[in-house]
UniProtKB/TrEMBL annotation:
Protein name per its UniProtKB record: Uncharacterized protein
Provenance organism: Viridibacillus soli
InterPro entries xref list: 6-blade_b-propeller_TolB-like
Amino acid sequence: MIRKKIKPFYIIQINTTDLFAIDTKHFKWSADGKWVSFFATPTASWSNDSNTLCVLSSAADHFQVIGKMLWYEKWKKWAPTKNQLAFISGEGRFFVENTITTVIDITTFYERKEYTPKGYVDLDLEWLSPDEVVVARAKENKEWKEGPIPTMFTSLYAINIKSGEQKQFTFPKKNELDSASLVVGSNITWYSSIEQEHQGDVWAKDSINGLEYSWLKNVASTPTFFNKK
């Protein structure tokens, strides 16, 4: 009975050069429900280095490959009110280079802009407002080739995607890093930790220009917020 209710929605045409995949995952709908983003993932080892970010219209009449990125679900997020998709593009599992904050307007597919300055990597992403995103940014490390993977000491930056203005707003001390930003209303939280430590503190601001304060101490990760809809 259940099988009879299941109908094909869209068949992805794959090939070995432009789009090779054996699975799909991490589906996310846009704010208006007209588009869904997802990963088309190749074989297990390959997917550690590269996945294909795709979008599909709710009527299944428009499919588009957006680009290559790693398989982190939190690295792709729809704007809160517009059909804009922010994601961290790039390939390579070690985070030392080539992770770039990119925003694309899905209604045109041509208005794509990259915001990560040359010489840096972005390793986290969150929408702050319809026109602003927050990223965790560090200097790239092209010198590393082998051995233990180096820690990327990230700080948080706010990017205005209209004006292009970028502003650093957290300043961790030596051997510390700030990451995992979350936005609830105008409030911003993030996780501040010390290199190789298994616990850290959650800090918060009531706005991007507000005073930061320590909210939770000695926790293993950031809290999870659930929005009432």
